Amino acid sequence: MDNLFIEGSKQTPEIKFEANTGILEIKGRSIPENTFEFFNPVLLWLEEYAKSPIDKTIVKVNLEYFNTSSSKYILEIFKRVKAVFTEGNDVLVEWYYEEDDEEMMETGEDYEDVSGLPFELIAVEEE
Amino acid sequence: MAKQSIYQREADFLEKSKEFLKRNSYSRGELQLEYKQLLENYEELVDQVKIITKISDRLQKKLNKTNDKLELTNDQLNDTNLKLNETIDALTEAKIGRRSATIVMFVAIALFIISEVWIEPIIESHFGNGLVGLGLKLVVAILIKPGEDLMNKYMLKRARKKQLEEATQAE
Predict the structure, then answer these.
(1) Do A68 and B52 touch (CB under 8 A)?
(2) For chain B, is the Cβ count within 10 Å smaller at the N or the C terminus?
(3) Model pTM score
């Protein structure tokens, strides 16, 4: 299947999903005017990927800020990744946050609790 | 398949349950199944609402923090700008002060020479007394400082007007 790449902007995150490596990256800021329009192709791609995932899937999330509707879609992304996980595949979510960004770290912890996926919270130095 | 709106899946479940209620008869098994599905969906929705609300509140806190930082940076920038303007003003005043002092000194020297070469001989021949010429030189000397101040004020006013015009053009 094809990889998915959506270039990031001031309002939307960069999406880089590679089916051949199993590395799914979301990076930047997510405050799209129309969240459905932005995230729908992402969810569709994940549904396809979940049908024949590779042995190890790594989801890298490095978001600086996202709005409420994006938080719902991030949850939907994790639900689809969970489907891959429950099928017996290896899955790891790498949740990146700036080292002084307490809120983003705690948000990662919340997603870890609710998704039931293995998370690794990674603090990065501020750019 | 992903649906057309953010809560489309939940809305579809709700619609399905409403349709089920419209039926005339239900078997015990159907009721149990429908209730189970409804309960599962409700539970999932409550979990989602809880987490989304929590995350949303936390990100609002982050936004507020960022706003506070921005306000602080803005205040610091304003302070720096004020200090910079004060320094520029002081520099302009010093530069103009030196220039006006030079101009006034040249005017005073010119007046002294004019008085010495042309005016004094006329006064002396008219009054036959050197004191009047000396008094004239004294008046010129006394007027040097106020003259310099006046010149200073005028040149400063011009410089500020020019600065204002440049700032307006830049905007």
Answers:
(1) yes
(2) C
(3) 0.71
